[in-house]
Design brief:
The protein has about 350 residues and is an alpha+beta fold. Helices cover about 45% and strands about 15% of the residues. The protein has a 4-stranded mixed beta sheet. The chain has a 3-stranded antiparallel beta sheet with strand order 1-3-2, with helices on both faces. Strands 4-5-6 form a 3-stranded mixed beta sheet.
Length: about 350
């Protein structure tokens, strides 16, 4: 058990050593409270420059570090609440250690702007092409000849720029399509701003893919023309739909309906901008399996982004083929009973 605190009796003097110890303890508490107040806007981290500007000396800072109360995380960053960083503190640390012209970019900038449902592997930071930057664990530095304008105290590129760069830096086409769709669906960037920004991009390693995906996301199902879907059907050896209708509703053109009248198969193509990433593609695959197995007419759902990604396109067209086979079987059965 802790020993109870004892206080000197009235009139009893404290030793010089005890007084010095008490003064040091009070001073350490003052420094800690000051540092925590300064670090509060940054989720527990602060720069060396901010501590010095607040009146602390380098010796006092190093004393706090030496006793394990604070931790130096690079040349500029000091953690005052433990060494493990969480939340926005990781982003502040990445910025401060990357130089005064650094900015959060790509998926990281979208997360800082409020993107939900996305897991960050590394922090994406852009720096000028001639910047001297030390490697930072967990941070990907992207060197650019021209950096885009930034917004916010926590410097980040604008969402339309960040979304396009996130798609270009993604590890796969599926991830690229997902981050773009999520950014638009969550209204971090408008379809018009995204499309305009993409048209300003020069070189892109994903040019052909992103040309169609950005169009899909910004213009909905209308971007997938009747001839495109018919071409996909022909490539699979499927009969071309007997009727293809672009529906017009209260909100204008919304989706493309595809029919095979003889087989009783109906495919509804959903625009990419209505959904958060690729989740609806997986939902549609499950719903289509159920649709093929029961009912008179077969109604399939095809999210347009699924048709842009080869593995999912193959799975969706497999389902269309199965539906046509099943539709012909049901039609023959109906004929035989009449």
């Amino acid at each position: 058990m802790d020993q109870p605190t004892t206080f000197p009796e009235a009139g009893e003097s404290r030793s010089p050593r005890a007084l010095r110890d008490e003064a040091r303890r009070v001073e350490r508490e003052r420094r800690q409270l000051l540092a925590e107040e300064l670090a509060a806007p940054y989720d527990g981290v602060v720069t060396l420059a901010i501590l010095l500007a607040a009146g602390l000396t380098r010796g006092q800072i190093e004393a706090q570090v030496a006793r394990g109360a604070w931790h130096r995380l690079g040349r500029h960053t000091v953690a005052v609440r433990g060494q493990a960083l969480a939340g926005r503190a990781r982003w502040w640390h990445a910025l401060w250690e990357s130089g005064r012209h650094a900015a959060l970019d790509g998926a990281t900038a979208l997360l800082a702007a409020g993107l939900k449902g996305w897991s960050e592997r590394d922090i994406d930071v852009t720096v000028p092409n001639n910047a001297r930057v030390r490697p930072i664990p967990g941070v990907r530095h992207h060197r650019l000849r021209e950096q885009a304008p930034t917004v916010g105290a926590l410097r980040r590129t604008r969402p339309e720029v960040a979304a396009i760069r996130a798609a270009q830096w993604a590890v796969s086409d599926a991830e690229a399509a997902t981050v773009l769709a999520m950014a638009v669906q969550q209204r971090l960037v408008s379809p018009g701003a995204l499309l305009e920004r993409w048209r300003q991009v020069g070189y892109s390693g994903r040019r052909a893919f992103l040309d169609v995906v950005v169009e899909d996301i910004c213009n909905g199902a209308e971007s997938l023309g009747e001839l495109d879907f018919a071409r996909m059907c022909r490539a699979r050896g499927l009969a071309e739909p007997s009727r293809q209708v672009l529906r017009t509703g209260p909100k204008g053109r919304a989706y493309l309906d595809v029919f095979w009248d003889d087989e009783g198969v109906h495919v509804e193509i959903h625009g990419a901008h209505h959904y958060a990433g690729l989740t609806p593609v997986e939902d549609a695959l499950r719903a289509n399996d159920l649709a093929i197995s029961g009912g008179d007419e077969i109604h399939l759902q095809v999210p347009v982004l699924g048709l842009r990604l080869p593995p999912r396109r193959s799975a969706l067209l497999d389902q269309v083929e199965r539906a046509l086979v099943e539709g012909r079987r049901r039609a023959a059965q109906r004929s035989s009973t009449q």
